[in-house]
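REQUEST FORM: STRUCTURE PREDICTION
Request ID: SP-0412
Submitted by: Lab K.M.
Chain count: 1
Length (residues): 271
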Amino acid sequence: MRRRTLLAGAAIGVAAVTYPAARADAATAPALFVAAHPDDETLAMSTAIAEHVAAGQAVHVLLLTDGEGSGTLKILNGTTVSPWWGNRHVPAAEGYAPFTPATLGAARVVEAETALRSLSAGLPGTLTVHRAGLPDGQVTSATAQAAIVAVADEIAAGGTVRLKGHSPLVDNHPDHLAAGQAIVALATANPTRFADRRHYILPMYWTDARLSQVTESWDNPTDAAIAARVRAAVRSYGAWSPSLGAYAIGYHSVATMLDQLMATPKCLMHP
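STATUS: Completed
RESULT:
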């Protein structure tokens, strides 16, 4: 398990640092947002993440995988073309080496960390990123539960942790469903520790018929500043500057959902 704390003005890679002017309320249990892949945290949970940090809380984001299995690898390596980009990439001519699954995953994590900085920088809470390193496309409820419990034990040994993550029902991706099912299983097995849980729905499912099976509600930004932070996080996934390690992986992959969130920054969730 790898851990990084993202703080305003701090360099990524500094572990377990506490922002001196930003201590979470000791009476509030830490919030753990669980995302199957880098970009899921922004697509599904960005408004909630920003609001929790703005409230001075200790916020943690667990990336279950690095997203190394994404089909964006073929796009960036010039094998296929992204409709969003419109042309075939030529890595050598554009100043970057062809990606491997490992280097793609590392680049995706950087994008997620950049987005999370946009959501949290300068706010009174703390935001720490954890990486479980599970294989992309092979997440199970059991492996997700183990990863979640490992982080919960690290941030609140034996104590209450508020779990936030994917829907176990309103989604089609096996990794997302497994993450949501893991949260349900943990709350069922240990209702005292994990009683407070929320499931967040990706924008592509905001009008899904399965919503009739849950009691959903909107989490709209509390003010214009939170909405601006969400939009800034979305922009992180469209940054293209290979010399600086920015490859717009999110927009090469899920441009439609990112544009949807840019237009209407909010979250849809259910218990």
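NOTES: Residues 163 and 197 are 5 Å apart (CA to CA).
Reviewed by: T.R.
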